[in-house]
Design a protein that fits this description.
Keywords: Ligase, Nucleotide-binding, Tricarboxylic acid cycle. Its EC number is 6.2.1.5. The protein is α/β, with parallel strands linked by helices. It is built from 9 helices and 14 strands. Helix 5 (about 155-165) packs across helix 9 (about 280-290).
Length: about 290
């Protein structure tokens, strides 16, 4: 079982013919993802990577029945591309683009509240369902299908956790990189809820970082509603207060934004918290034995 994407997902690529879109679409197709076409305004009617190119998302949806879109669109145009996908009826919109201005994302977040779709990102590595669909930039070869869900703000730590989980003798149901920007479409808690409601996900890895309250909110929700073991890690323990670290959203603004505070809250809510990312796989394997 999986969440968000699977082998039946019909995927289009916005920014299909650009350098990033071409490279990553090629990798997705090679992995076996059902990429049914792409969108580049002004190039409709052409073929690219042996797939049709459309001028608009609406045209692509009409012709292919696409229900998932991945965006490799420059920051200045990415917010409009998200809105276009939502208006065209795309159900899962995955925005890889980094550097979208916060002022552009505020109206997007508000607009999507009334739409029947889910935005993942921006500034994220995408969503990966092993043996089903790779919709993003994650390295497919390290993933193996299984029953552990991964939710992460960090792209590289998503891959690291997946690699460790697999080496510990387990596998991944779906990995969701939610993105590291201040305003993102799907929160940590919302991603955790998807996995808690997925009958074949039996354990969850939750990776956060300094800044904001997403992890604390998710931890409180897990304490009240959780039914599956969760391993947590927070990146940025040594980051100085007031300085952005890597991601735009990774900045300590208050006392509960620090790694230490987040880990304390998570532990109080029953999450198994590791102090080093190197311990994620072993901790998950141990928890799964205990809960077997």
């Amino acid at each position: 079982m999986s969440v968000l994407v699977n082998k039946n997902s019909k995927v289009i690529v916005q920014g299909f013919t650009g350098g990033e879109g071409t490279f990553h679409a090629s990798q997705m197709i090679e992995y076996g993802t059902n990429v049914v076409g792409g969108v580049t305004p002004g190039k409709g009617g052409q073929k690219h990577l042996d797939r049709p190119v459309f001028n608009t998302v609406e045209d692509a949806v009409k012709e292919t029945g696409a229900d998932v879109s991945i965006l490799f669109v420059p920051p200045a145009f990415a917010s409009d591309a998200i809105l276009e996908a939502a208006d065209a009826g795309i159900k899962v919109i995955i925005c890889i683009t980094e550097g979208i201005p916060v002022k552009d994302m505020i109206p997007v977040k508000e607009y999507l509240k009334d739409k029947d779709c889910r935005l993942i990102g921006p500034n994220c590595p995408g969503v990966m369902t092993p043996d089903g669909a790779k919709v993003g930039i994650m390295p497919g070869f390290i993933f193996k299908a299984g029953n552990i869900g991964i939710v992460s703000k960090s792209g590289t730590l998503t891959y690291e956790a997946a690699d460790q989980v697999v080496k510990a003798g387990l596998g991944i149901s779906t990995a969701i990189g939610i993105g590291g920007d201040p305003i993102i479409g799907t929160t940590t808690q919302e991603a955790i809820e998807l996995f808690m409601n997925d009958p074949e996900t039996e354990g969850i890895v939750m990776i956060g970082e300094i800044g904001g309250n997403l992890e604390a909110n998710a931890a409180e929700w897990i304490k009240a509603n959780g039914t599956k073991p969760v391993v947590g890690f927070i990146a940025g323990e040594t980051a100085p207060a007031g300085r952005t670290m890597g991601h735009a959203g990774a900045i300590v603004g208050g006392e509960n934004d620090t790694a230490q505070a987040k880990k304390r809250i998570m532990r109080e809510c029953g999450i198994t918290v590791v102090d080093s990312p190197a311990d994620i796989g072993a901790a998950m394997a141990e928890l799964m034995k205990v809960n077997a």
